[in-house]
Design goal:
116 residues; alpha/beta; 4 helices
């Protein structure tokens, strides 16, 4: 699992690459703590380069959602392939964390912009 982050206009984009599985959680926990330290309360997790998610990935998303929500923020997910989207739907995570087609749509929604 590789993780890159970028902050644009107060929104942190977390780009994940590779399988989102057990053993990849150290970098993810570090990213979550970094967001808390710099005061970022809005984030998008870009799943477009993630072929699979297991319980470690699901737990990370839920914990990040809770952390951001406790500070008045939001987490959106973007770019999930059909397999990952199915896992998110089966576990009902999509009911608590909005899922968007791509990062740009998720960013716009976080900023309250109207999408055409």
């Amino acid at each position: 699992m590789r993780l890159e982050s970028q902050i644009r206009d107060g929104v942190c984009i977390l780009r994940l690459q590779g399988r989102f599985v057990t053993g990849s959680d150290a970098a993810l926990v570090s990213a979550q703590k970094s967001l808390e330290e710099v005061g970022i309360a809005k984030a998008v997790v870009d799943l477009s380069a993630v072929p699979y998610v297991d319980s470690t990935g699901l737990a990370f998303m839920v914990e990040l959602h809770k952390s951001l929500a406790s500070r008045g923020g939001q987490l959106f997910l973007a770019g999930a392939n059909a397999r990952v989207r199915e896992i998110l739907e089966m576990t009902r995570i999509g009911e608590i964390i909005p899922l968007f087609q791509d990062v740009e749509d998720a960013e716009a929604a976080l900023r309250g912009e109207v999408l055409c």
